[in-house]
Design a protein that fits this description.
The chain is mostly beta strands. It contains no helices and 11 strands.
């Protein structure tokens, strides 16, 4: 089992910045990829960014087009923590953000979610 606990959400004006954190514990050695999803009201959950964690491929990141150049995903291996630095936030970035982890094809582990609200 892997436990994920997010922190760092909040309210910010458009153009501002926030950093989300996700602390992982448990059987984290089995995890290949970690990422951030978000779900806006009335919308489906969507993938925002991912980063690999493997010994040989670790650190490879990918982003949804709408956040490229504004969001940065990173991880601190020593602290077992995943981050999402969000800059130049837009109103349309408002959502509940979830960190997730997988050791196979599907994301098996999820955090509880962190609300990010961007005001105009």
């Amino acid at each position: 089992q892997v436990m994920l606990v997010e922190s760092g959400g909040g309210l910010v004006q458009a153009g501002g910045s926030l950093r989300l954190s996700c602390a992982a514990s448990g059987s984290i050695a089995s995890i290949d990829v970690v990422g951030w999803y978000r779900q806006a009201p009335g919308m489906q959950r969507e993938l925002v960014a991912t980063i690999t964690t493997g010994i040989t491929t670790g650190g490879t990141s990918s982003y949804q087009d709408s956040v490229k150049g504004r969001f940065t995903i990173s991880r601190d291996k020593d602290l077992n923590t995943l981050y999402l630095q969000m800059n130049n936030l837009k109103v349309e970035d408002t959502a509940v953000y979830y960190c997730a982890a997988r050791s196979g094809v599907e994301y098996d582990y999820w955090g509880q979610g962190a609300q990010v609200t961007v005001s105009s």
